[in-house]
Fold this sequence. Notes:
2 domains, 6-stranded mixed beta sheet, 11 helices, 9 strands
Amino acid sequence: MKFGTDFEAINFEMDGAVAIITLNRPNNANSLNDRMSEELLKAATHCDSDPSIRAVVFTGAGKMFSAGGDLPAFHAEGEGMSEYMRYATAGLHAAVSRFARMNAPFLVAVNGVAAGAGFSMAISGDLVFASEKAVFTEAYTKAGVSPDGSSTWFLPRLVGKVKAMQLILLNDVLTASEALEWGLVNEVLPADDLMPRVMEVAQQLASGPTLAYGEAKRLVADSLSNGLETQMEMETRAIAGLARASKDTKEGVSAFVEKRKPDFKGW
C-alpha cells in the first residue's frame, strides 16, 4: 500500500522530491485530535527516514490552517481528558521534533487562521509563508489551558520573552502583515499565490544539499542551549563530517573551484 493512503486526519502526497502534508479536517477547523496526532507522527517519521524526500510542505485544507486542539473531543473524554491530552500531545510533540531535526527543509504555508496548536505548528517551520488572509493567535489561556506544540520554545526565540508573554497572556490576534513585522513569518502573499510560491521555494530546496541543510537545522536548534565554544565545536564536527561522508559536499566544493553549477543529489 502506498504510504499515506490510510490517513484520515491529514493528507500526504509527493510532488517530485517534495512531500506535501495537509491537515485535513476542514469541517472541524483542522483541529488536532488523537488521530491527527498519530498521523502527524507517522508522516514526520517517514519524512525523517526517507532520503528521497528533500523538502516538506505543511499546510491546511479549506479556509483555515488549524484552530488548535479539538476542544469538543477533549471535553467528551470527561474525567479522562487529562490522559487524552497527554496522548494527543505526545504524537504532536514527537512530530514537531522530527520536522525540526530532519534533513529536509520544513516549509509551512499558513492559509488561514492559526490558533492554539495551529499557531504552534505554524511557527515551527524552517521557513513560514502566510496568506494575506491568515491570522495568528495563541488562544490557549482563553480556554484555561497552557501552550503546547512547541510554541513556548519557538516563540521566545522569535520575538523575545516580553512579546511572547504578551501573546500568551493577552491572546493578541495578529494579522499576516503584523506576524511578518513580529518576525513570525518570512513572506506574506495573496491567497492564490501562497502555494505556488511555497512550492517554488520547496522545489528549489529539494535540488539542494539536503545533508548540509539538516546539519544547519540541528545546529540552529541547539544554538541557544550551548555555550559559544560548545557550539563552535559542534559546527566543526558537522562541517568536517559532511566533508567525510557527503558526496554533495565534495560536489559543491568541486563546482565552486571549477566555476560551474553544482549538481546536488541529496547525499
